Each structure stands twice: as C-alpha cells, then as structure tokens.
Please model this.
Amino acid sequence: MIQLGHGPFAESLDSLVDRVVRSFQSTSSSALLLASLDEARRHLATRPDAIELALASAQRIRSLVSADRRYRDATPDILASPDAIAHDPFKIAIDTRGAGITGPDAHYQLLRDHRVYCELSTPSALLLLVGATSPVDVDRFWSALQALPEAEIEPERPIALPANCERAMGLGEAFYSPVETVSYSEAIGRVSADSLAAYPPGVPNVLPGEILSAEVVSFLRSTAAAPSGYVRGAADPALTTFRVVA
Model:
C-alpha cells in the first residue's frame, strides 16, 4: 500500500506510480490480500485509541533504553545522517554494543528463549517494529532484553560493507548465459550469475555480470552464517557454492 499523501510531491508522483502499477501489477490479484488492506485501513480508522497505546508503548521502550547502562537508543545516529528528516516512531533501534552482545545474537536469543521476535538485526543493533494498532507488552519485552547475558568484552565493531564488484558483462547477458556451480573458493574472480544481497539490509552486494571478489564472498558467507542473517538470491543458503557464468 503506497501512501502518496497530498501536495506538489504527491501530484508529481501520481502519474508515475500509476504507470508503474499498471505495468507490473498481476492480472490475478489476490482477493485475500486486497481484503486485508481494507481491513487494515478500517482498523486504523476506527481504533485511534489503539494507535495511541501503541505509540505510548514504543515511547516507553525508547525511554527505558535511553536510561539503561547496557543499551543505547540509536535514533540520534539515524537522524544525524544528512538525508534523514525524521524517524518512524513505531521503529526502535537499539545499539547492543555496550551490552557485550551482537545484534544477531540478541535477536536469536530473544526468539529462542523468550519468544520475542524483532524486525531485524545488524552486527551492532536490534530493530523493533511496533504494530500501529498493536501495543507492546513493555514489561515482558524489557525483562527479556535484560535477561540477555552480558559479556566482559565489548564485541567487535560492525563489519564494513565490501567494495563494489567490477562489472565484466551486461546484466542481461550474464543472467541468460549458461551457468555452473563452483565452490566458494573457486568462485573468487568468476562472473556471478546471481544477484546476491546480504539481509539485512537486502541491497544487492553483487549483480549478475559482476566479478566476485574475495572480499564480497567472505562478507556474504559471514552473513549467511549469522543466526538471523541470510543472503537473498543465493542458490546455496550456506554459500559453500556459488553460481557463476560458465
């Protein structure tokens, strides 16, 4: 569901969005999905009290994090980016480095031991997503977060993103070329046949037609090995093998 809102930006985007939707929409739209959108809109329109409660629960968690000695509210870091103009109040970014635990480890242990599911994690942070009309049980979540083990040594800084890979052929040419599957060590220096994106954030690190570097292979394999990470587009989830242009 795309909310264009009102004003000059909405007016300039309206025609473009309409053309894109008409070009790519399914001719067999799911009635269940469309009905769920209507139900979501109805719920938002008729339950403003639930929205207020959800916002209040998110703000209470953010306040607890800000006052805690182990965790830190990462919202100011996000707003410090030159292209940031505001933040989503329903999303809470928690820096876990001071707690001596990585984001993926915290993500995994919260789910395994407390049945608390976070939206996503990075090597240094957790991201919580509060439903617009679904207030959080703040006490339950906070107890689970505080129950995470504390290490004596602060974990390493976040892994740096790998440099862009060099392009060897066009995307379409590579995508439709014959492919072969090779081990990860043999894939270094070969032309990728797949679009591979470490999640989070899910932005492609290598596209078809680009040469797989040792740096990007190592980065993708470390992401795939993380408890809450995976590589979108990989034929082999563990990335012991890669598909390359033959």
User: Anything to note?
Assistant: Residues 48-67 form the longest helix (20 residues). The CA atoms of residues 49 and 161 lie 42 Å apart.
